[in-house]
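Slide 14.
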Amino acid sequence: MQDVLKLLEQDEWRIIDQSSLGPLFHPLQSFGIDDTLCEVVGTGKSPAVARSWVHHNSVILGIQDVRLPHLKEGLQYLESEGLRYIVRTSGGLAVYLDEGVLNLTLVFPEREKGIDIDSGYEAMYKFVQEMFADLTDEIEAGEIVGSYCPGSYDLSINKKKFAGISQRRVKKGVAVQIYLCVTGSGSKRAEIIRNFYEKSIQQEETKATYPDVKPEVMASLNELLGTNLTINDCMLRFLKVLQKVSKGKFYSSELQGEEITLYEHYYNRVVDRNEKWLP
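Slide 15: predicted structure.
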């Protein structure tokens, strides 16, 4: 537990807030940005970074989803629902993002000792517990069977999932990412992902295991807590916790200087991979 707290107690936290850029902010950009931040933090050119981001009406596929037997039909279904889609370069499976889902990334440098996988997950789990400590003490981590993109660090209240955590490592930088379903209907989002898999599998046998999505096991924070939280409310909570755990400087910033050139490299790489992977 002490190691987890030390991860959050960085000497400096640099804040990059991209939670209100609107529908033109494309998810491909986010994955290019996080890889850029991993490199600059991992190589010591930037302090630890906390980034917030929101994408409208998007489905983020995992690499495993590219192997679905009828992927083309699944993608056509997403298009018919007015959704855009990309494949992220990290693991996991499909997740649904819209203007009611707040995404957070914490980017840490790997020191000489390194950061083990569980410490990264635990740090984000503790961070989220702290964000909503005045509203609930019932946030638990553990796989929620029937959710989309299930994993051992699904976050839930009363066995209903509202968030999922993933990790990405580039050049000795560790990005721990979470999506938080804040507003709207968690089960309606899950229905879209369930339908996507039904159309992409069509009862064929697959080598990989895909989730049998049960919409009733997913919900938003507002549904679970009986609140009217907004993305802005959660941003304030995020910044307050960051200020609390920060040992020193705490400041806002955008990509700058060499980071912009580096971002172009990582963004183009994500675009190229998507062109290669998608039909």
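Speaker note: The chain has eight helices and eleven strands.
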